[in-house]
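task queued by scheduler; priority normal; single chain, no ligands, no partner chains; default sampling; output format set to C-alpha cells
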Amino acid sequence: MPRHIITIAGRRFVVGDGDIEQVRGRLLEAVRNGGEFVEMGAVDALVSPGLPVFIERRDEPDSDPEPAAGAATAEAIAMPADEFDDWGI
C-alpha cells in the first residue's frame, strides 16, 4: 500500500495514499496565501513560500493496518533530540 512521507522543515509526517491529494492541496493553498498553518495530525505546521516541502512516495506491504475511521490524516515521526544538539538548541 502506498504511503507518503512529507518533510517540512526537517520534520517528517506520514500520510496514507488516500489522503495525499487533500494534504497536497492544503500545502499549496498555504503557499499561495503567503503562509498558513496546515494541520498534520497532532501538529500544525506553518507553511510559507520559500519553505522546502518534500513529498516522498513509499510502497509498503499490504499487511499494515489501515488508519481507523476519523484518525488524523498524518502522524509525526519523532526526531531524536540529539539532532538539535549540533545547533545549540
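post-processing summary
- The chain has one domain: 2-87.
- Strands lie at 2-8, 11-16, 36-40, 43-47, 53-59, 74-77.
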